[in-house]
UniProtKB/TrEMBL annotation:
<dbReference type="Pfam" id="PF07690">
    <property type="entry name" value="MFS_1"/>
</dbReference>
<feature type="transmembrane region" description="Helical">
    <location>
        <begin position="300"/>
        <end position="317"/>
    </location>
</feature>
<dbReference type="InterPro" id="IPR020846">
    <property type="entry name" value="MFS_dom"/>
</dbReference>
<dbReference type="GO" id="GO:0005886">
    <property type="term" value="C:plasma membrane"/>
</dbReference>
<feature type="domain" description="Major facilitator superfamily (MFS) profile">
    <location>
        <begin position="9"/>
        <end position="461"/>
    </location>
</feature>
<protein>
    <submittedName>
        <fullName>DHA2 family efflux MFS transporter permease subunit</fullName>
    </submittedName>
</protein>
<feature type="transmembrane region" description="Helical">
    <location>
        <begin position="194"/>
        <end position="216"/>
    </location>
</feature>
<feature type="transmembrane region" description="Helical">
    <location>
        <begin position="265"/>
        <end position="288"/>
    </location>
</feature>
<feature type="transmembrane region" description="Helical">
    <location>
        <begin position="329"/>
        <end position="347"/>
    </location>
</feature>
<keyword id="KW-0813">Transport</keyword>
<feature type="transmembrane region" description="Helical">
    <location>
        <begin position="107"/>
        <end position="127"/>
    </location>
</feature>
<dbReference type="InterPro" id="IPR011701">
    <property type="entry name" value="MFS"/>
</dbReference>
<keyword id="KW-0472">Membrane</keyword>
<comment type="similarity">
    <text>Belongs to the major facilitator superfamily. EmrB family.</text>
</comment>
<feature type="transmembrane region" description="Helical">
    <location>
        <begin position="353"/>
        <end position="375"/>
    </location>
</feature>
<keyword id="KW-1133">Transmembrane helix</keyword>
<feature type="transmembrane region" description="Helical">
    <location>
        <begin position="396"/>
        <end position="413"/>
    </location>
</feature>
Length: 478
């Protein structure tokens, strides 16, 4: 595809990705307002976020099959149409049940769109320029969550919570118009069979695991059978899914893609980075408000340096990928991430705000150089045909890993805090000690994963030699 045709494809995908990311980060602020308007507790209102994540996770495994049968461009546009309709439904909702239904539909739409973003870009751009264009895509992915809370807060000041759904419409409409004009038809496999057993196993398994993990918020929850039942059942379903998919001739998700070493390593590193990212979203608000005594506005603003610096670094990292610096880029990103986490672990209760901001900006450097580039490296190691499946599996693994990581970090915080209180520490000191341990654990996780980054190929020739051509032929049925 020529550059004149490829640029509009990139813009189209950027509009859709920006819409989803902006909406999700802005709606976090609406939870207190929804609690007041519908007279419900925090646990019920929080399903506005939880249901979105569960629906997205359950939809992602389908994207590879549906993209093959219908075409990735059609499926992406269907997802964007569904997201637009769900946003209208949310804005018109008169009950919390309708709001939750709208969020569930938005999650389904996001589950269709997000895994197809990179495959659509990769289909339009040659391998030697993918790093640069995915760096631009990464800019949108990073900048939207930075703008979302600020824009959402402004809308809540001058309007009602419905405006947070309506804010999606202009960008979504632009994305649809651009998509219908510029997204070209891609090769389809209309003969591909639907793997019904695999579909039932993976969707029910992922849904049960994510639902169970979302309900575990304290050590007391571990003693409730209703929490363990869905988690164990979901885990068992996923184990059976892996066993069956390795033997079926037409799998819903081709697990043989993990036999490509570079892709396998990229997914592991992406999962590590996802645990760190979502772990910090849990730990830093607790630290800022419970220990340092800052208000919610300051707490929200402290995340701004991370997002802005990551957005700035992402295109730079992408250009370096195109110059055959993949290994160096990812290792540098992980090293900076580990250093920032160690810095956060060492801070005391009197830490100045500027130092916290500087360490959060360092986290942004780590994200920009380590998070998205490693996904690009992994997908570049595969032939074009199975990239939609591979992207879905990457996203799904990151979703499961981050959910599990957040639960473990939350449980560790509560248990560690209780231990320090039992030893005579004051509440603030106990919180500080527990959070310091958690940041240290995250830093160690990154350092342990860094040797994997050292084994990544540093140029396209190494990617080609590392690719297993026999397995590549197995990624799509004949």
């Amino acid at each position: 595809m020529s550059r004149e045709k490829a640029v509009p494809v990139l813009i189209t995908v950027l509009l859709g990705t920006f819409t989803v990311s902006l909406n999700n980060s802005a709606l976090n602020l609406a939870i207190p307002e929804l609690m007041r308007v519908f007279d419900v507790g925090a646990a019920r209102a929080s399903w506005v976020m939880t249901l979105f994540l569960i629906a997205m996770g359950m939809t992602m495994p389908l994207t590879g099959f549906l993209a093959d049968r219908w075409g990735a461009h059609r499926l992406y546009l269907l997802g964007l149409w569904l997201f637009l309709a769900a946003s209208l439904l949310g804005a018109l909702a008169g009950t919390l049940a309708w709001v939750l239904a709208a969020r569930g539909l938005q999650g389904v739409a996001a589950g269709l769109m997000i895994p197809l973003s990179l495959p659509l870009i990769f289909a339009a751009w040659p391998v030697e320029r993918r790093g640069r264009v995915t760096g631009v895509w990464g800019f949108a992915v990073m900048i939207a969550p930075a703008l979302g809370p600020s824009l959402g807060g402004l809308l809540l000041e001058v309007s009602r919570w419905q405006a947070l759904f309506l804010m999606n419409l202009p960008v979504a409409v632009l994305g649809l118009l651009s998509g219908h004009c510029y997204l070209e038809a891609q090769r389809r496999d209309s003969a591909r069979r639907f793997d019904l057993p695999g579909f039932l196993l993976v969707t029910l398994g992922v849904g049960a695991v994510l639902t169970a993990l979302a309900g575990i918020t304290s050590p007391a929850d571990l003693h409730q059978t209703m929490r363990w039942g869905p988690l164990l059942a979901g885990s068992l379903l996923l184990i059976v899914f892996v066993h069956i998919e390795r033997r079926t001739p037409h799998p819903l998700l081709d697990l043989n893609l993990f036999a490509v070493r570079t892709f396998r390593i990229s997914v592991l590193l992406a999962c590590c980075q996802a645990v760190v990212t979502f772990g910090c979203l849990l730990l830093i608000p607790i630290w800022m408000q419970h220990v340092l005594g800052y208000d919610p506005l300051t707490t929200g603003l402290i995340f701004l340096p991370t997002a802005l610096v990551a957005a700035i670094c992402s295109p730079w990292a992408g250009r370096l990928l195109d110059r055959d610096k993949a290994r160096h880029v990812v290792v540098f990103g992980m090293a900076v991430t580990a250093a920032a986490l160690l810095g956060l672990a060492m801070l005391g209760p009197e830490a100045p705000l500027w130092l916290i901001g500087a360490l959060m900006a360092a986290r942004g450097i780590g994200l920009g150089f380590g998070y998205l580039p490693v996904t690009t490296v992994g997908l570049n190691a595969l032939p074009n045909r199975p990239i939609a499946q591979a992207s879905a599996m990457n996203n799904l693994c990151r979703r499961l890993a981050s959910s599990l990581g957040v639960v473990l970090l939350a449980l560790h915080h509560d248990l560690s805090r209780a231990r320090h209180l039992a030893q005579g520490a004051e509440a603030g000191a106990a919180d500080m000690a527990a959070l310091g341990e958690a940041f240290l654990v995250l830093a160690v996780l990154v350092l342990v994963a860094t040797p994997l980054a050292l084994s990544l190929p540093s140029n396209r020739r190494e990617v080609t030699s590392a690719h297993d051509p026999h397995r590549a032929t197995q990624t799509s049925p004949k």
